[in-house]
Predict the structure.
Amino acid sequence: MLNEIKNGLAVKLSEVFGPAITVYTEGSEQDFIEPCFFILYKNPSQRQLIGKRYFRKQPMDIRYYPGTSNKNEEMYVVADRLYDALEQISVGEESLRGSNISHEIVDGVLRMHVEFNMFILKKPDAEEVMENAKVNMDVK
């Protein structure tokens, strides 16, 4: 599921910003051609709720490397567009809502933070079948 969410986010960024801005999901930041996006996870976690139900927290970091000399102005424009774009992404036939969206600019790079959290219901293991059962029924 992690790769599907990352790919769904890459598709969304390509739809919103077009082919002029490359979206990287792998590789070294030194090999990037600017302007570009780089998508990575920030410590995903999962906790068990009741039975086979789990809550999965999937925080992501989307980094934007500007390509013009007006870097701050460019990053503010991109941040505004990302707030709208990250509200909802498609993953296969499902739709995921982004939450806790925020941004910061660190060392000339825009860093957008978003979480795609979800509940997971795992399929139960094959049911164990009793081989022999003895039942005593007394009527009183």
Summary: The chain is about 20% helix and 35% strand.
